[in-house]
Backbone:
């Protein structure tokens, strides 16, 4: 058995370096295998009549699941013929424009064009060839998926209902977990492998946007955190304190500190201290932001990037809405969470985004409820909130065989 056959879901990436060379991890190849590349013009540039060819020989009869050729076009044109040859025979040929292949012309972002979109077994010699028919196409890299194992599926459950089933595209590639909407007083925090009804300790979780690698067909349950109903979840009156800066529409919150001019964002998790920020308001129109776990000030540069600096932020506040922004060179920038990187369409970050300051889903979520946490996979089982007529401030919520009692802000779980 070859080295490739003994590795599940191996992904080979070959990046074009010159008109006659590509770079990649040669250790992924079996002994004796050879990689060759040649472009008749320069590097990965293919004009009308030019040819670029990647060849890999003596692979050892492996199975190839798919091939993607990442390329760009000219600003308004670019076409060619992309073909795949297996063991000396042409298996796939795809002719068309770059726009037909990817829906747009794009001279900035490298987009994947399928070369082989179905598994082929017994591959010993492989050739991927692009012939230009209209100026111009530009190849950046080749991604080849080689697998010897099965793909697995993950069923996602929200309480007693199935949300969807995610299936790996390639063996061992994993699946990207989605986020879920909050349910009244229950806030989504992630996915767990073990179904449970109620817990006061945070279980082992996979967060939204995490890649989950199933070893077999399996099930994950959406997990929720309970926030007391007697306190407003979001800041409505401007008041300094500890908050999560979050988007109520997406369920994402600012996280961490500035690095390389940008910041992270994660699914809202009131127990994740990395999402805790001390907001100090000066009046109602200015604020200073500090990352609580590290004491790091959150600021910005004159170049509209994030920086560790005690910068003053302007504040837009209306009801539950709170948006931080600044003005740089007479241009407004809002502190936003899901910004697409200018060079990579599949990379998102938090940072400054040029935009007008308008009504938005940005909120400051209070973190005062974290002292006595409560988690469940079954928020759908709760009944209406009851408030007994007693001298104390008491609330009761029943779900399943449990009753949650909140007495003067303290939680108790009663097994019925």
Residues:
């Amino acid at each position: 058995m070859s080295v490739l056959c003994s590795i599940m879901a191996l992904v080979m990436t070959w990046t074009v370096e010159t008109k006659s060379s590509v770079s990649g991890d040669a250790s992924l190849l079996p002994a004796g295998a050879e990689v060759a590349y040649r472009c008749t013009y320069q590097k990965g540039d293919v004009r009308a009549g030019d040819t670029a060819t990647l060849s890999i020989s003596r692979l050892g009869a492996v199975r190839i699941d798919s091939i993607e050729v990442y390329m760009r076009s000219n600003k308004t044109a670019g076409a060619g013929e992309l073909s795949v040859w297996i063991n000396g025979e042409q298996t796939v040929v795809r002719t068309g424009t770059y726009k037909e292949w990817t829906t747009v012309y794009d001279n900035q972002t490298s987009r994947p064009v399928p070369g082989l979109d179905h598994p082929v077994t017994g591959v010993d010699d492989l050739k991927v060839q692009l012939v230009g028919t209209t100026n111009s196409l530009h190849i950046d890299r080749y991604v080849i998926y080689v697998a010897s194992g099965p793909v697995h599926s993950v069923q996602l459950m929200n309480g007693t209902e199935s949300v969807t089933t995610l299936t790996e595209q390639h063996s061992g590639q994993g699946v990207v977990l989605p986020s879920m909407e909050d349910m009244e007083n229950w806030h989504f925090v992630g996915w767990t492998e073990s179904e449970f009804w109620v817990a006061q300790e945070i279980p082992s979780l996979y967060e939204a946007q995490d890649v989950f690698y199933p070893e077999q067909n399996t099930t994950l349950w959406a997990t929720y955190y309970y926030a007391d109903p007697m306190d407003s979840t979001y800041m409505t009156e401007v008041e300094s304190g500890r908050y999560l800066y979050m988007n109520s529409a997406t369920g994402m919150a600012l996280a961490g500190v500035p690095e390389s001019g940008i910041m992270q964002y994660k699914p809202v998790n009131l127990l994740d201290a990395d999402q805790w920020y001390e907001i100090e308001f000066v009046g109602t129109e200015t604020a200073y932001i500090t990352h609580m776990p590290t004491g790091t000030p959150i600021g910005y540069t004159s170049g509209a990037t994030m920086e560790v600096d005690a910068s003053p932020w302007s504040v837009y506040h209306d009801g539950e809405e709170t948006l931080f922004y600044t003005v740089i060179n007479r241009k407004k920038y809002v502190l936003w969470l899901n910004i697409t990187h200018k060079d990579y369409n599949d990379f998102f970050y938090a940072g400054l985004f040029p935009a007008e300051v308008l009504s938005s889903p940005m909120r400051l979520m209070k973190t005062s409820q974290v002292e006595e946490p409560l988690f469940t996979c079954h928020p759908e089982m709760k009944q209406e909130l009851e408030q007994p007529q007693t001298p104390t401030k008491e609330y009761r919520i029943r779900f399943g065989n449990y009753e949650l009692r909140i007495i003067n802000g303290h939680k108790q779980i009663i097994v019925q």
